[in-house]
Amino acid sequence: MPTSTALVLGGGGARAAYQVGVLKALVQCYPRNHSIPFKIISGTSAGAINGTSIATHASCFHLGVRKLEWVWRHMETRKIYRTSIPEVLSHLAKMALKGLQDDKVNTDAGSLLDNEPLRLLLNQLIDFKRIDRNIQNGALTALSVDTSCYNNSRSETFFQAARDIDNWTRARRSGIRKMLNTEHLLASSAIPLVFPSIKLNQAYYGDGSVHQLAPLSSPIHLGATRLFIINLDSPHKHFPMELEYHPKTATIAGHLLDTVFSDTL
Known about the structure:
Layout: E1 5-9, H1 15-27, E2 40-44, H2 46-55, H3 61-73, H4 85-99, H5 116-125, H6 129-136, E3 142-149, E4 154-161, E5 168-170, E6 173-177, H7 182-188, E7 198-200, E8 203-206, H8 217-221, E9 226-230, H9 249-261
Parallel strand pairs: 1-2, 1-9, 2-3, 4-6
Antiparallel strand pairs: 3-4, 3-8, 5-6, 7-8
Helix pairs in contact: 1-3, 2-3, 5-7
C-alpha cells in the first residue's frame, strides 16, 4: 500500500492563524516549486477554510502558504461579519421580526450576527475549480470539510476526491462526495446561534465541531496512512477544581461554547 499523508486542521477561530504559522515554518523545508506534501487535506470550521485554500494551490506549496498568510495578516472582524452598530441593530431587528413569523412563511435561518462578509471573502479568494484540476493532475487526492447536520444530529463530511474513493457511513457520521463550494465552508464554520445555519441537500448544517466524535475518521476513510495534525491544545494544563461560588449563567454558557471549540484531536 502506498504511503499517503493527510493534513488535519481543526476548528476554533483564531487557532486557524496558528495553523498558518506552522505551515509557514514547514514550507521552508521544501523547494519553491514543490507541490504540497499532503495528498489528503481534512478540515473543520476555520481549519476547513485554511485547508481548502491550500488545496487550491496543491501544485505549489509555497504559493498556497504565502496567499493564506497574506489573508490572515490582513484579516479584520468586518471581513467576517457586519460590525457597525447600525448594521448589527438592523440585523437583530430582522431576527426579532422573523421570530414572530410562522416557519412556513419565513424559512431563513436566524442568527446573532450577519456573516455575509465572510461569504463575499471566500468567493473572492478561493477558486474552487482548481481543486478538481489538482485532483486530476495528481497533486491532490482528496479534500474534506466536516459539518454537523441539524436534521439528524450526525457529523457529515463533504469531500471531493479521486474516483476510487467511495462514500462511507458509520455510527453518527458519514462521508458524502460533492463538488465543494463556498456554502460547504460556511456550513462548517457556522457557529450555532452566532452564525446562520446553511441549507445543503434539503438539510441544515452548522459548525463541524459540534457532533464531531471521531475527528480523525475522515482522512482515514479518504485513504490516509499517516496524519499530520496541527494541534494547539496542551495536555499538561492544570486548572483549579473548586469554585468559590456557584457558576454564573455566563460561566455555564462559556462551557457550552467550549464544547463547540474544544479540540478533540
